[in-house]
Structure formats: structure tokens, C-alpha cells
Amino acid sequence: MKKIDYQNVKGTQDYLPEAETVRRKVRRTLEDVFIQYGCKPLETPILNYTELLASKYAGGAEILEEMYTLSDRGGRDLALRYDLTIPFAKVAAMNPGLKMPFKRYEIGKVFRDGPIKAGRFREFTQCDVDIVGVDSQLAEAELMAMGLEAFRRLGLNVVIQYNNRKLLTGILEVFGVPADKINKAVLILDKLEKVGIGAVISELSELQVSEAAQRLIERFLTDKDNRSLDYFVPYSRRNKLVKKGLEELLELMSVIDYLGIDGQCIFNPFLARGLDIYTGTIYELFLTDGSIKSSIGSGGRYDNAIGGMLGTDETFSTVGISFGLDVIYAAIDGKESASESGLDYFVIPLGTGKEALRLANELRADGYKVECDMSGKKLGKLLDKANKDGVRKVIIIGENEVKEGRYKVKDMVTGEEKVYSYRFR
């Protein structure tokens, strides 16, 4: 018989218990924060109709190239979700009776046939929060504050960079970029930190943006004053989008300043967020130590998605934020140990398997986390296992303990032993 060459599909990964213990701790921490902020749980299908995920209100051309597509036995065109945002917008569109504002969180796997790098795979887990029904920048500010709190609890120092798509789009209009090329120009600007100004201008040239517009954009990218909102005031008098984007940013800055988180939030006029879906404030979270260059969380306002799915021009104020569980794990890998097993007791039977299992079950019924050994290995090896697994309390049950109606609890840290009475029969 031919031996199978076992290997994972490229871009997927197994997480053995030590790694998965850390990942689940991250997940629980995020979920605790989400719940504390008043978010309700939601779960959406991994399988969706391709038409939904490829709609004009979805991720845009670039992300659609990475979408996994398939068909079922009925010949229907299906796709694996590439994020949790569009499935959520579908839920909001299908359930008009939802009470507003509606806050939801969802943690689930998504799939993208894209490039692989540190913390970024083709099957990965996203942790999302979205708010529907809040027009003001209070929603953005709360999600930004929530993100900072989540990473504080995870022991990671982050900074939030933020911008506004109206501001960026309006500036490009002022500079003379044609309307049909605005979105592609935004995608090019989104690569600025990765490829540099020269490459950005070169791509704008390939997009056939006029030389005059290229010069204005290059001047904008290199102007030292563009980090201040005052820089955009003159443009706001010439363009409605710049004016509206500036107003939203001023409102946001006022709120984050009042909340005392302005020191961890930085205005970045070049931040674009590559997805076409965004309509207002956008933000990305980065590790301050730079150990991972890509963002560790991101989000923004997307007011057109739900109405678009309903086939109407009506806008539904919607803001979201997303954290990548895999990239967070990559950031804390090595910094956080999973040596503590989480067990309260490790029960070691010495020829007393059924008695040990009975005691273990009674302790479990009392709410304790208990593992009962079934390997039959020697006591020394099992005590070594308990030490390596970080189990503090070990219960040893031999034939004498059963006869005498007692069991011994050994503290693996202090070495102290205590004896308790127990009726084994």
C-alpha cells in the first residue's frame, strides 16, 4: 500500500494543544471585552451565494480575486466567506425588525486565496464587532476604545491610525483624478508605506492619471503639514467630500480626546483601507514595537452596504472593527506560555482505575477541572507529566487508600501533602 504524503493545504495550519490553549485564551479575552461593551453574539454561515459576496457593496475587485468559489449538486454558485462583514450586512438586511442601535460580535473562520505571511494564512479566524444605527462618530470612538482595551488585556501595546475616506476621495477629486479612477487610486495610495512614494506615482501613471494630478498627489504625500487637519481647510471650501470628511474627523478627535485615548490614536492622511466598502472614518491598529508590520486590527464606517443589499439608496449607519486571531497569536507567540494546564486536579491511580475515575467524576460534578490518568505509567513519570503540564495538585490513589477510605493530595509547588477521607465503596 502506498504511503500517503500527509501535509496541510497551503495556507492552513494545525494548532497543537499548547498553541491552541493560548489562542483560546486570546479568543476568550476578546469575547469578554465584546460582551462588556454590550455586544450580542451572532453566527453566520461559512457558505454563501457567490452573488452576495461579489456584490458591488462587498469587498471590491482585489478581494474577489482571492475568493474561494464552488458549486453544489444543484449547480448553484457558492463561495466561502472572505470576511464576516458582508454576511453580517446580509443578516441586517434580512431582519428589519432588529432593534437599533444593534451591536453584534462574531468570531469565526474566513477564507482567502491570497499571499501568505507572518500571521496571515488562507484559512484564518476573524473577531468582529459591528454597530448599526449610530450616525455620530461616537460609534467609531467606542470601537477604537474597545480595541485599545482588548489589546491592553492581551498585554500588547498598539497604536491606532485613522483617516476618513470622504476626505481622501475629495482630495483626489480636487487634484483632478477622474471619478472612475478614484477607487483604484485609493488602492494605490493604500500601498504607500509598503512600496514608497516613487512606486505609488509610477502606478498612478500606469492608471493614466494626468501628470498634473500626479504632481499634486506627490506634493500632498511629501508635505510636512498634511498631518494637521488645518492643511485640509482650504480644500474643504472647494469640495463637499473634503468638507464632510473634515467635519467627521473633527468630531471624532473631540470624542477620543475627551475619552483620554488621543495619545494612542494618530491621524494618518494616507491611510486608505483597500476595500471599496468604506464610506467614512477608517482605522487600523499596529503594534508599537513593530514586530509585525501589517495591521493587527482594522475597521471603519460602511453606510451603503445594507441599503445596497435591499436594493435601495437608503443608508444604514454601520461601523465595524475586526481583529485577526491568527496575527494576534503570532504577536504573542513566545511571550505567553501555555504551561498552566488549567486543571484543578490530576488523579493518578495505582492499580485503582475505577476508584480513581469515580472520585474524578465526583470532583467534576462539584465544578473542578480534573484529568484522570489511564496510561498505567509509573508514579514518577506521571508526577513529571504533572509538573510539565503545570498541574499544581495531584491526587494519588493506591490500594491502601481504597482500603482505608482516604486519598492523598500533593501540592506540586510546595511539596505539601494532605489526606482526605473518602468512601470508595
TrEMBL record:
Its EC number is 6.1.1.21. Pfam families: HGTP_anticodon, tRNA-synt_His. Residues 1-349 form the Aminoacyl-transfer RNA synthetases class-II family profile domain. One of its GO terms (molecular function) is histidine-tRNA ligase activity. It is found in: Cytoplasm. Its main location: cytoplasm. Keywords: Aminoacyl-tRNA synthetase, ATP-binding, Cytoplasm, Ligase, Nucleotide-binding, Protein biosynthesis. The keyword Protein biosynthesis applies. It catalyses: tRNA(His) + L-histidine + ATP = L-histidyl-tRNA(His) + AMP + diphosphate + H(+). Signal peptide: none annotated. The keyword Transcription regulation does not apply. Belongs to the class-II aminoacyl-tRNA synthetase family. Homodimer. This is Histidine--tRNA ligase. The gene is hisS.
